[in-house]
Every structure is written in structure tokens, then in C-alpha cells.
């Protein structure tokens, strides 16, 4: 079964600079940062689509 959702994006978002972390150790890398975005959206799915 494949699930899908219809999303409505409101154009509102938050942009936050966060410290970069090492993938293996999880430790913060001094002086390196990345941008994290959070988007506001609503699920406007009206029906479920199912495939056999």
C-alpha cells in the first residue's frame, strides 16, 4: 500500500542557524554551522488512495 498526503504550505517558515555536528561521534564541530528550516503546512488530504 502506498500512502500519500496532500499538503498546503502557508509560506510561513522559521530559519535557524545551528552548530554542525560530526556524523559518527555527534560532537559539535567548532566554527561550523548549518541552516535548519521549519515550514508550516496543513494536511488537506480528503481521501485515502490504496493500491492493490
Number of helical elements: 0
Q: Give the overall shape, derived from the CA principal axes.
A: elongated
Mean pLDDT across every amino acid position: 89
Proportion of residues in extended strands:
over 45%
Number of domains: 1
Percent of residues in helical segments?
under 10%
Our measurement of the CA-to-CA distance between the termini, rounded to an integer number of angstroms, reads: 7 Å
Count of extended strands: 2
Structural Rg: 18 Å
Largest sheet: 2 strands, antiparallel
Structural class: mainly beta
What's the SSE pattern? EE
Low-confidence stretches: none
What do these coordinates show?
The protein has no helices and two strands. It is an all-beta fold. The protein has one domain. Strands 1-2 form a two-stranded antiparallel sheet. β1 and β2 form a beta hairpin. The radius of gyration is 18 Å and the shape is elongated. The protein starts with 6 loop residues before the first strand and ends in a 9-residue tail after the last strand. The mean pLDDT is 89.
Amino acid at each position: 500500500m502506498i500512502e500519500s498526503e496532500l499538503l498546503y504550505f502557508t509560506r510561513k517558515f522559521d530559519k535557524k542557524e545551528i552548530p554542525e555536528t560530526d556524523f559518527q561521534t555527534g560532537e559539535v564541530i567548532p566554527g561550523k554551522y548549518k541552516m535548519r528550516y521549519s515550514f508550516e503546512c496543513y494536511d488537506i488530504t480528503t481521501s485515502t488512495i490504496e493500491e492493490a
